[in-house]
UniProtKB/TrEMBL annotation:
Gene3D superfamilies: Divalent-metal-dependent TIM barrel enzymes (3.20.20.150). It comes from the Bacteria. It comes from Devosia pacifica. This is Xylose isomerase-like TIM barrel domain-containing protein. Pfam families: AP_endonuc_2 (PF01261). Residues 19-253 form the Xylose isomerase-like TIM barrel domain. InterPro entries: IolE/XylAMocC-like, Xyl_isomerase-like_sf, Xyl_isomerase-like_TIM-brl.
Amino acid sequence: MKLSFSTLGCPDWTLDEIVQRAKEYGFDGIAFRGLNGELDLTKVAEFQPDRRAGTRAKIEQAGLEINMLLTSARMMVPEPSELADSQANARDHIDLASDLGAPFVRVFGGAIPGGLSYAAAVHRAGENLRALGEHAASRNVQVLLETHDDWIEPAFTRRALEAANHPAVRVLWDIHHPWRIAEQDIEETWEQIGPWVAAVDVKDSVEDFSARLGYRYVKVGEGQVPWSDALTLLVRNGYDGWLTFEWEKRWHPDIDEPEVAFPHFRSKLQELLSEVPRG
């Protein structure tokens, strides 16, 4: 498996610092979720059309890949004009990913509007995902629906993927959220969405009801998520894709600095993977 980190974890680093640190810490790639204080990557100077080739070359010359672009696009948007804007932004990110050689673009399901049935939400999400899948397929990119917000129930996510019914629409499995928030067993989650999993997010936490979320993020291996079991499951099922460290420093400034958390993740994942039974 290949290891990357999301730039959500290093909001103050420049592109040069991101590339330098990724190489120094032994990562294989970078997942971009913001740069230079801007979350919309299509607005970032280094990702403008006339600079994309140079940015891609800089990253590739360091022996790194861009494995994913993470957007704020949502499939559930009540206002038609806002939905159109969200879909347009997702398409722009797909075009950017294609130019940068990134295989994946992440989108959210989004909050299901009040009064909308689950069946209608699944149908609507499937239509919107399929439309993005058509655009992505022509650019050799895949759209990944993350197990997030109102879509952390794996059976619900599976139904959306079945409704989309498109080979360029897959799943970004944030293992933490269904396990922690929806209290879903990891094995059972894989049974629901395993065939669609194209990438995996990694983070850890401990229960803490004094915290706003009811839990606190901690370094991988220092929390309660059963990562040894999760990695064993992935290996057993032939998953050999990206593991992306999502350290939410931008949203939680009190957690450890990336200079501490990133190299720790790299060494801990290597340790855990070395202990996974093979064959």
